[in-house]
Design goal:
This protein is mainly alpha-helical. The protein contains 20 helices and 8 strands. The strands form 4 sheets. The protein has a two-stranded antiparallel ribbon with strand order 1-3. It has a two-stranded antiparallel ribbon with strand order 2-8. Helix 6 runs antiparallel to helix 7, helix 9 packs antiparallel against helix 10 and helix 11 packs antiparallel against helix 15. The longest helix is centred in the first third of the chain and has 26 residues. It is globular and about 75 Å long. The N terminus is likely disordered.
């Protein structure tokens, strides 16, 4: 009860600093003020907790932005009517994805921490530095997600604590300036982290996770913002730094996602879900009870029941399922195909369900409390391969580490051999598809590699319409932000 009261008190306080996209017509009242709240280490800890709670509330949005526009998903048995992103038919009225309000709330909380925590006395200075490092890393990550989504952004480095138009209404800054802030925050975070250690559960920012973020940021700017060789070199150095931490591939691919194995050695950063907290979004990719057939075999029955809150709105597309070899352990660990048995005893394909984030069974009910993964070591290896290839180095070692685990005893004959930059990039991009399916990475990968119009069926006839690589800004935001203009083409 004490923890719950503390959480609501913190939430009330943080609401006072909600970002510019909230309608602020009257001054909110609260017994908690900046003078009374930012006094102790416990106050700071509470605000930090609030920042991660806000991140968890955006887990579904992160997945939508990072995967749903790609080729990996298709409508499930009940999903056709809501799958705007899959069809790439977003507009300002029906964007099909979250607006940026929630992201700015996280940024505002990080800004509050960065403003007030330096003046608080801590029992351990390294703990203060760790908290500031997490705030810098979080702000960098959120801006990175946002600028890949909407391009130019409103830059806020101070918390929104006033209510005048000069504070709450601002124009967007060029994307180049956004990336300057992202890279600056990453460097400050890396300087502040006391070591390469992780917390239990690996669900908060750490130096290894921040180096993974740094690698991805510099890969993006190398390809998309003409950063070239220098940025590829910076990316590779950051990704190699991750190896100094307690990280590595697990022997068995499916063990990475085992509910009882949360926070395992392969995880760099995940979004924590626990009992009595809101479940994650991946119930969208489980079958809905009304569609569960009776004419199935026992293996299928054991897989899908109990169903819990499954909705069957989206499934792994045929296009992607057919790219997995039967011998690839990642196939069965990523999705399960449901077949019905007809009157002649034959099997007929019905649908599929995702397997990476199955949740757990509590009281006879499936609860989707798996932790969505933001960064894991396999991702780092494939980003290293990408950077090395761009620099004219052989990426075979990293690719073969991934393939060897995927195929086990069937690996001989599937060894990767350097084929030249262009061909290597195709191999790396496909390996990322097979390895990171349903982890919210695919759309960003396609955009970074310049392959979205080639590989996404809904975009294949729209080559040259580059404005579609961004998302529209919702009319809700535009109505609250008079100085913000819609992205071109929407």
């Amino acid at each position: 009860m004490k923890g719950i009261k503390k959480y609501f008190a913190i939430t009330l306080f943080l609401m006072m600093g909600w970002a510019c996209t909230e309608t602020l017509e009257v001054n909110p009242t609260s017994v908690i003020t900046t003078n009374s709240f930012w006094q102790s280490e416990n106050d700071a800890e509470g605000a930090l907790m609030g920042m991660y709670v806000e991140l968890r509330s955006l887990a579904q949005g992160l997945h939508q932005l990072g995967e749903h526009r790609s080729e990996v998903l298709s409508p499930g048995l009940f999903g056709e009517g809501v799958f705007i992103l899959h069809r790439n038919q977003m507009n300002a009225d029906t964007p099909g994805h979250p607006d940026w309000s929630g992201f700015y709330r996280i940024i505002n909380t990080a800004n509050l921490i960065l403003k007030y925590v330096p003046d608080i006395t801590f029992s351990n200075e390294s703990r203060k530095n760790l908290m500031l490092a997490q705030a810098h890393a979080m702000r960098a990550y959120v801006y990175f997600v946002m600028t890949r989504t909407w391009g130019d952004l409103i830059i806020r480095e101070e918390p929104t604590e006033g209510f005048g138009a000069d504070v709450t209404q601002r124009e967007r800054s060029p994307q180049s300036q956004v990336f300057q802030l992202i890279k600056q925050d990453i460097e400050e975070a890396l300087q502040l982290f006391p070591d390469n250690g992780f917390t239990i559960g690996r669900s908060v920012w750490s130096r290894p996770a921040t180096n993974a973020l740094k690698g991805e940021v510099y890969l993006w700017t190398a390809r998309q913002l003409e950063g070239g060789t220098e940025d590829f070199q910076t990316a590779l150095a950051a990704l190699e730094e991750v190896d100094q931490a307690d990280v590595g591939l697990l022997d068995d691919f499916q063990d990475v996602f085992d509910f009882e194995n949360k926070g395992n050695r392969e995880i760099l950063l995940s979004i924590r879900h626990q009992d009595l907290e809101p479940g994650n979004y991946l119930w969208f990719m489980w079958i809905i009870g009304a569609a569960a057939p009776s004419n199935i075999d026992q293996e299928t029955r054991d897989k899908i029941f109990p169903i819990g809150g499954g909705q069957g709105l989206m499934v792994t597309s045929d296009l992607v399922r057919n790219q997995f070899e039967a011998e690839d352990a990642r196939r069965d660990a990523s999705f399960f195909e449901i077949y019905t048995i007809n009157e002649n005893g034959g099997r007929e394909y019905l649908t599929n369900i995702q397997q990476k984030f199955q949740g757990t069974i509590i009281g006879g009910n499936r609860v989707f409390l798996s932790d969505p993964i933001l960064y894991r070591y396999a991702d780092v290896l494939l980003m290293k391969a990408e950077a090395k290839n761009a620099l004219g180095m052989d990426p075979a070692a990293e690719i073969n580490q991934i393939r060897q685990r995927a195929y086990g005893d069937q690996f001989p004959g599937r060894e990767f051999v350097d084929q030249g930059k262009e061909a290597n990039d195709e191999v790396i991009l496909k390996e990322r598809l097979l390895e990171l399916l349903h982890e919210g990475k695919r759309w960003w990968d396609l955009v970074r590699f310049g392959k979205a119009f080639e590989l996404v069926p809904a975009l294949q006839e729209k080559e040259g319409e580059d404005h579609l690589l961004l998302f529209p800004i919702s009319n809700t935001v535009l109505s609250q932000e008079p100085l913000v203009e819609q992205n071109p083409g929407f």
